[in-house]
Amino acid sequence: MDADPLWTFALVLYGRPGAAAACLALQDEAGADVTLVLYLIWCAQTGRALDAAAVRSADATVAAWRAAVVAPLRGVRRAMKAPLLPGLPAEPLRDRIKAVEIEAERLALTALAAGASDPEPAAPEPVAAARRHLDLYAAHLGRPLPRAPREALLRAFAGT
User: Fold this and answer.
1) Contact partners, residue 116, CB within 8 Å, separation at least 6
2) Domain ranges of the chain
3) Can you give the three-state secondary structure of 36-55, one letter per residue?
């Protein structure tokens, strides 16, 4: 049995065609937390029904970590795309920062999985549940998720 099923799920989904670009678009265009989006879809896949309170609670679980750790690491990594020290090899440092950012996201997923409810025996169809979970998250954010990346992510999830 996998010791970290949410992390494994996230890696598999993120690696499917179109999923990474969709996640980054949701992040950049709507301010969505990719780890939370992946968690919401994992809950749908594993038969864990969520309501608005559960989405708020999940976001609250990782909000401080996201603000204090993940977002600053992402900001540093993205800033280092530009040649801030021309002529000096900064790419190895940027790669290490990216690895730390990914580890920080893994820890956020671990925290989310730890607070997940038990699967329900009569869970709804996973893609429909994922769509509902993303709708609840959009309501929580107070803005719609951009349609094209949302649908691309759902297609990747469905395996089409």
Assistant:
1) 6, 39, 43, 48
2) 5-158
3) HHHHHHHHHHCCCCCCHHHH
Q: What's the pLDDT tens digit per position in 59-77?
A: 999 999 999 999 999 999 9
Helix pair angle (52-65, 34-45), 10° resolution: 140
**Contacts with 94 (C-beta within 8 Å, 6 or more apart), sequence order:** 77, 80, 81
pLDDT tens digits along 73-125 = 999 999 999 888 888 899 999 999 999 999 999 999 999 999 999 998 887 89
d(CA 47, CA 132): 13
Alpha helix (H) ranges present in 1-160?
5-15, 19-30, 34-45, 52-65, 71-79, 91-114, 126-141, 147-158
DSSP conformation class of 6 = H
Total-model pTM: 0.94
Tell me which DSSP letter residue 27 carries.
Answer: H
